[in-house]
Amino acid sequence: MTLGSYWLRSTVAAIAFTAASAAFAGADAGAEATAGQPGGSVTDQGSEPNGGSITTSNEIVVQATIGYRNRNDDAEPVLVYDTDYFQRFEPLTIGDALKRVPGVTFLSDVIESDGARLRGLDPSYTQILINGDKVPGANADRTFFLDRIPAEQVERIEIVRSSSARRTGDAVAGSLNIVLRDAFELDGGYAKAGGILFDDGEVKPVVGAFWGGQVGPGRLMIGGNIQGRYNPKEKESLRYEPDDGELEFVNREDQDDTRDGTDYSANANYTVDIGTSTRLELGGFYVRTDRNEHERSLEYNVEQGDPPPLPIGESDEPGLLTDADQDEDIDQASYSLSGKLRHEWSLGKTSLKIGYARFKDEIRTTEVGIDFDTDEGDPPEWEAERTRQDIRDSEFSVGLEHEFPVAEGIDLVIGGFYQDKDRDTDISSAEDDDELSEADRLTYDPSSDSPTDLPFEFDEFEPVTGGFNTIEERRLDGFLMIEGKTGIATWEAGLRYETTDVEIDDREEDERFDNDYGILLPSASVKLDLSNRDRITASIARTNRRPPFDFISPATLEGEMGDNDLRGNPELDPETAWGIDVGYERRIGRTGVAGVNFFYRKVNDLIEMVNTGEPGNDNDVDDCQDDFGKDICIFIFEPQNVGDGKTWGVEFDLSTSLEFIGLPDTGIFGNLALIDSKIRDDFGSRRFNGQPEYVYNFGFIQDIRDWAAAFGATYRKQGPAKDRTIGEEVKTTYGGDLEIFVEKRFGNWLTIRATGSNLLDGAKKEEFHKYNTLDEQLSHTIDDLDEYELESEKAGPVFQLIARAAF
């Protein structure tokens, strides 16, 4: 799609959407909704002493009305979605819930939603906050997988489209703020119990309980949740190699991939008002994942049809080529503790917040590969390896903020933020010490045995290259912001200066590296209430994206990029971006909202792989050409701050009842994001990696009051995405995802709900072009391919039956 046709389609869609919104609003629906009501601002509910509203457990268990997207009255462009908006479709995790909000995409495996990609950008461009605070995760790109937190813990989700001086600036694409239930948002208790049925007949339990009420001088909320996690997938890969301008079949791989585990979570909050001007809040949450992932891959020399029978045939007959087995035990745990003190006095409002968060990741992997594709009747070749990965990531932070009036309706806010982050990585591996005995080989049956169960003997564990290091990161930020309301305008403008000092200790090589940098991040937002229905928002902000941990580790990894090597760069600076958001929003009836938003981001100092010109893998730089003069050197590549990129798009969202046409018990919702971008790399122009062209979601909820019942459906689809890195180019496509629910309510204390997800047997398809050298990838011809691969992955439907009871 050309840039001109893209914007033409976007403009036509915007006009049509606005016209439809105006038509929906044809009937007069009364005054503007107040904060805490559908369509009102809820961002600050319960945030001030003696303020906020309390939700009873009966209201949570029995939803008397359909939940809609809320409006936010602050200057920033924020979309607010209460738990009522998601709950009826029974999302298991926050990632599942986010599939129904605008502009969020995933490149996860089917029926999984882990790394959220706001506006289709890599997860590292999206800032994930829990109760307004960043949390550490195991991923080298600093991301936190949202499938680790059960949706049951969530009070609301806020999509922050632009940035503010109040928050850290790691939000090029925007921020997702996950607000957990607190003591001032629950009165009474409720329990949930049920089961999840998967396509292969496996059943997993789901249980949880939450309670909130007065305890001593304050209010306490405490809750916990246990749910089984299971994902049985089937994959098929077809691989080809070039042969005189055509692709010749090489092998077919059939893979079973099953992820089986249990998630445990707990959340607690205690809030006490001291007098009429001070509030103390203590909180914490804990999440643990205990999971086993097992992959069994069998390669055959037949392209279609049923796999050949076992035992293995001769090398020139149909038969089994390889047997690969991977068994991975995962134990991940994270917790966060925080304390907040807010005080109102004659000089304004002062807030102090202290937090500590820690993440532990322990993975034990055993991999076994057996190669039966041998010449001249040689015996099979066996390889086995064990890997041990231990990651500890902890963060201590202190934030101080003071707000005071400087004129009528205008406040000045000043503050500071300190963070001390430590990340220890210990990855080691051990190979098998000796080949299997002849007896073990003869008794092995690929049709029934698992290779990882064979009695291998392994060497001592030794650190892998780049896998034994410590990273210490110290941050000190200061900010100044002025905000107010003038006539129809609610506005804010501020400056934030972030300083970072990074120390990297490669303990394997006994080397230490330092890097420090400072970034000035201006921001400004305005919201114009043109009427009690119409408003315009506009924002401009500078943000940043910090380098991934694996990119600043100085180790050199051989063959990491095709046949080329990858060397880390401890002197990497963060990427920075200027962003603009402009939106229009219209109230529809008493509860509905329709909106359209245009965004643009210009990213500078992009981190891209650069050919250093140094030969890799101990190659001689003077011996880099074959007999035809073609460059076949293997080089060392290094991430560097080079070039720039830009991304832009338009986002639509609609959430409303059909009361204005006489259907008050019918709610509809939908959203659409059209996205484009441009980056230049060594191979020319491309989009941001993994960014789809579009993503949309639409659905409805129908309440049947006379029967105390309801039902609904939602459908989601995202467009194809492409990735291009050194040595590999990938195109990824997904099928559509259909979900439905049916519920029955009993009085005001019990709801039983059945849901079905992935009802279209969702499939993920990937097309790989793989290259060995840079020149081969530049030529982009069939004969220069190292391998062409088609991979497909699918999983069956998932059904839940959940009961909730208030007490």
UniProtKB/TrEMBL annotation:
Main location: membrane
Biased composition (Polar residues): 40-56
Region span, Disordered: 33-56, 423-454
A Pfam family: Plug
Residues annotated as transmembrane: none
Signal sequence annotation: 1-25
Domain TonB-dependent receptor plug: 75-174
UniProt keyword terms in alphabetical order: Cell outer membrane, Membrane, Receptor, Signal, TonB box
Domain TonB-dependent receptor-like beta-barrel: start-end pairs: 489-721
Domain of life: Bacteria
Localization of this protein: Cell outer membrane
Family, similarity comment: Belongs to the TonB-dependent receptor family.
UniProt name for this protein: TonB-dependent receptor
Taxon lineage: Bacteria, Pseudomonadati, Pseudomonadota, Alphaproteobacteria, Sphingomonadales
